[in-house]
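Section 4.2 – Deliverable D4.2 (structural model, holo form)

The reporting period included a commitment to supply a predicted holo structure for the target in complex with zinc ion. Inputs used:
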Amino acid sequence: MDVASMSKIWGSYDDARDFLRSKNILRCEIPRCSTCGREMTEINRSKKGGTNIWRCPSHKEIHITIKHGSFLEGVKLTLQTFIKLLYFWSHKIPVTTCADMAGIHERTACVWYGYFRDICSKQIIETPTKLGGSGVIVEIRASLIAKRQDRKTGTISEKWVFAGIDTLSKIGFLRHIPDIKAETLFPIIKKMILPGSIIYSDAEIFYEKISDIPVSPPYIHKTVNNSESCVDSVSDVNTKTVEDMWTICKRRLQTMCGTSLSTLSSHLDEFMWRQQYGHSGSDSFNNMLLHISQCYKIN
Ligand SMILES: [Zn+2]
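Output (C-alpha cells):
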C-alpha cells in the first residue's frame, strides 16, 4: 500500500481501528458481558485522545478497552501511530527518521522496532526453514564481530556470527555465537542444513570434520583453496553468496542499531525474517500484521 492510501488509514481513529480489525489485530466480534452475557457497546473515547472501550449496557462498571487481549493491550500508543510505526519499520526506515515522521520520542520508536523484531524471532524459531538438500550447495562462514579482554582477569571473550545460505533458494540463517568450536557449530549445521547437502566453507580448521556429522545421507564438504577435498581439479568452490549476504546484513545492522551487541540476535532474526517474508515493504507490512495476529489470537 502506498503512503497516500496509508495516510487515509492513519488519518482517523475510526479508519485505523477498522483497518486493524480487518487484519485481526483488534477484536472483530462484539464481546459479551462476563456477568449478564449481553453484548457490550462500543463507547467512543477517541475524541478525547483516548481509546474506545466496550461497556455492558446493564453493568456500566464492566468495561474493557478495544485493545483488550491484543498485541496493543496496555500500551499508550494510539492506533494511528502504531500503524505508522509498523509501516515505517516495514519499509526499513531508520529509527531516528521514523520517530521524526511519526512525531514520537526516538526511545519509543526504538522499543517498538524491538517488539516487531520479537515477532520476527518467534516466527523464525517456530517455523525454521532447513536449507539445502541432496545435491544442493549451502555455503557457510563464521565472522568475528567483537573481541574484548577483561581488564581484571585478562580473559578474552569473542562474539561471532555464523551464517549459511542455500545457493538455490537464497534463504539463509545467521546465528550469534560465543565461539567457533565444533561443538558450537556442528549442532547448528545439523539443525539448519538438510542431510546430503554439499557444504562449501573456507578452509578453517574448525570445519574439518563436517563430513563426519552423523546425518544420512552424509554432508559432502568442500573447501575454498583446498583442491584435495574437491572433486574437480579446478575448484569452483567459493563462498561468495554467503559473504554477500553477510555484507548486506552488516550494512543493515549499522543502519539500524550501530554496533549494539545486546540486540544483535534479534536483528539477525529480523534479517532472516525479511529474507522469507519481506521481499518488499508491502510484504513486510502485511506479513508482520499476519504474524502478530497469529501470535495474539483475539477472535
Ligand atoms: Zn452485563
